[in-house]
Amino acid sequence: MKKIVFILLICLVAVLLIYNISDKENDQILEEENENKILSPLSGISASISKVERRPVAVMFDNHPNARWQAGLSQAEIVYEFFVEYPYTRYMGIYLINDPEELGPIRSARPYFITTLLEYDPIYVRAGGSEEAKEYIEQLEIADIDGLTNSEDAFFRNTKVGKKSPHNLYTNMENIRNAQIGRGYSSTGDYEGFNFYEKDTEIQGDNGTTIEIKYNRENSTSYIYNEVDRVYERYKDGEAHIDEYYNIPIVAKNIIIQQVKTKPIDNEGRLEIDLVDSGKGIYISNGKFKDISWTKGSKDGKTMYYDEEGEEIFLNKGITWIQIIDEKSDIIIE
User: Fold this and answer.
1) Using CA atoms, how far apart are residues 104 and 172, in angstroms rounded to an integer?
2) Same domain, 148 and 211
3) What does the buried/exposed string (b/e) look like for 129-152 if buried means 16 or more CB atoms within 10 Å of the residue's CB?
4) Is the same domain home to 252 and 153?
5) Which residues are bridge partners to 169 per DSSP?
6) What region holds the DUF3048 domain (predicted)?
7) How far apart are CA 116 and CA 191, in angstroms?
8) pLDDT tens for residues 89-128?
9) Which of 185, 183, 129, 118 has its CA nearest to residue 154?
10) Are residues 273 and 326 in the same domain?
11) Backbone phi, then psi, for 315, in 5-degree steps?
């Protein structure tokens, strides 16, 4: 009996030793993984050094009602929504640490999107563009992947989503990165990121749990604050905005509303949007909002956002949506 007890004690000690070694090994692995991760300058989210140090990608998304919903949009770290021809808007997603398996529908460029993407020195993914935009891209030697002219093999017509051309042109991040290498584009970008709070922070401001932005009578964007997840769930023209491929809600941790001057420049309704300028805006996060201002000194300069004390704002870590709206557009925050 004593012999059996002795053997059991030895086994128990062995198990404890193995568990202790295993626990230390796991701690070491986790520590090594954390040491190999840094914060994304676009979102403040932690990711591997190899992903954070690569070149950003800017993707043009179709937002025509016949194109909805978009695939892979939930994976962008920053998304811009701009006016295009009345009454529509269009999205540009900025990607760095994520590699969506599907992206689209892809749509065409406008000059003001290019003025914006210059801030990130990205690979630009699009499908054609206005004549002015195409001249702009060539003049500035943008690292361009165009689904209509120079990189058709990186794109495909998605026949599974029930959309008709031109609202069914798709790609994925693997194709984009392969095209980037094939065309000899630089693997890194030269740009400045945002400032982020170290910890999730409730900004000093008024309550803002429901936001409605009326681009025009036929086009609106809304956000409703989810207090549990501490993010804003997005709605487009009254419908919940869902990622078509990942089947998850589109959300924002930060919302920046940037008020700009706009005017039509041709019979097609194409617009001139003054981004190299300054103006007013609103920053929204964690159920609060506050007034801000913005300024952009040159076409390739970074847009700076300041609080009422003149200090550059900090963002909470997570996805940021930047709503570029006309100075006369209606904004309702409750």
Assistant:
1) 8
2) no
3) bbebbbebbeeeebbbbbbeeebe
4) no
5) 157
6) 43-185, 211-322
7) 12
8) 999 999 999 999 999 999 999 999 999 999 999 999 999 9
9) 183
10) yes
11) -110, 155
